[in-house]
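Why predict the complex rather than its parts? Because the way molecules touch one another can change local conformation, and only a joint prediction can capture that. The input here totals 227 residues.
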Amino acid sequence: GAGVSQTPSNKVTEKGKYVELRCDPISGHTALYWYRQSLGQGPEFLIYFQGTGAADDSGLPNDRFFAVRPEGSVSTLKIQRTERGDSAVYLCASSDGINYGYTFGSGTRLTVV
Amino acid sequence: DQQVKQNSPSLSVQEGRISILNCDYTNSMFDYFLWYKKYPAEGPTFLISISSIKDKNEDGRFTVFLNKSAKHLSLHIVPSQPGDSAVYFCAAQAGGTSYGKLTFGQGTILTVHP
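Output of the joint prediction:
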């Protein structure tokens, strides 16, 4: 596609539930990133994929968070046993690895009630 | 541990004047710096960047200055336009490649008044 697409754009879930957030990167981009942005803060790194493998998952806050990219394109961020503190905008970005600066999607706003 | 800091939460400027946004960092391993602009309900958009081997990079109305000894960078917008009103984030990268994570500052809200 022309840009990075994230679905859903908004997600409200109850505390303790499981959620999946989807990211469709720009076609041909080999690198894919997940960030989380809380109110009044800058984006915070979660995980980065190079192809199908996670090249750096040092930002995942705990084992409730997991992400996959099985075919090297679409990625899914999975959050188990959601907590109210997980409420944030989850941003996905992709890059071609040639040019600095990634392209971000519009994000998924997750609200845990 | 905030490795990239933007100490001004907001900045207000008159149209046509210069906007100067500042950013400080603490990690000496950072070797590439970027500025992003973000409008409400949209993802951040890449604006301009600079390598640590340079001290200035210019692109139209936007210029980024890097002072490595002070671990400080700034973004100058001249002349400022109302459409520049947005949140501006500086970000830093280490590792010498275009891959890898970015560390972002907290952002500065720029308002340009007509």
